[in-house]
Amino acid sequence: MKKVLFATTALVLSAGVAAAEVSTGGTARMGVAYNGNDGVKDWNFSSRIRVKFTLSGQTDGGLEFGASLRADQANTANSTGAAGAAYISGAFGKVSMGDTVGASEALFGDLPEVGYTDLDGAGFGAAAMHLGQNRPNLGANEIPYLTGDDGGTQFDGYNSGPNVLYTGTFGAYSIAASMSDGKDTGREGQKSPNGSVDQEAAIAAAYTFGNYTVGAGYEFISGANGMEDKSQAELVGTAAFGNTSVKAYYAKGGKANTLDQGYGLGVTSVFGATTVLGYVQHIENSFDGPMSQDGTTYGIGAAYDLGGGASVVGGVADSDIDGTGTQADLGMKFSF
């Protein structure tokens, strides 16, 4: 992937202080997408542009520091929004603060992303959004983590940021820990109508041996103002076999977590310039009703690398969740 440096700025704070660098890059996509949700079935053009600013520097003592800022969802002239985080790192690991994911997601990530738009409409939460319920959409390929990512997936627009995340790798062992500062704001900065969250935290660890990695995570949210405590544990394993990689997970919710259990499998294979990927996952919730979103999601897709940061990407995703239907897309992705 070719990286283009648009600007490098020397920030001389005092004699002997290393210079900091500022660079810009970004991504773009264009194509067509099919939305098969009930009442919405249609083909549509779909495009997006994101610009990322990356800042980095180093202290006299060898500590690395930096920050990143992304102009997000810039698909129309009126789009606004940004996400970013600052960090400092050294032999002790890396500490980031801002728009960070939770500890478990930092170590394990999600299942493979299918399609050039990620085909979120086939995911858990899509039916609730279609019914007008104020619930964040959990993408079809996304592992249902409880914390991080602006409050995880358990709340109606709840935003816990800024969060702090620690990650460290020491030989074959990797560890992570994350925590919020207990904000109680909801969608667009409004106070959450469902009460406030006191604090969320998570820890995770992984062990790598050869081409295999096994890990576990534990997440917790302490409730306040009428909200109940929630917890969740995850087990994750990955393996690589030549040009094929496999990821499997199992998640179990506890206390007042709406997730009862979830499990899934993702596979990615590379054949020269072509990458083929797919996933399947099943979610069971601890209550009934239109917000329960029990069911199975699955998807398959492919990407062909044209070189120079351009690729042709397409995919199909579906689920057996009420209110959702087949999703598909085909287009081009660009990385600058």
UniProtKB/TrEMBL annotation:
Pfam families: Porin_4. GO terms for cellular component: membrane. Residues 7-323 form the Porin domain. GO terms for molecular function: porin activity. Residues 1-19 form the signal peptide. Keywords: Signal. This is Porin.
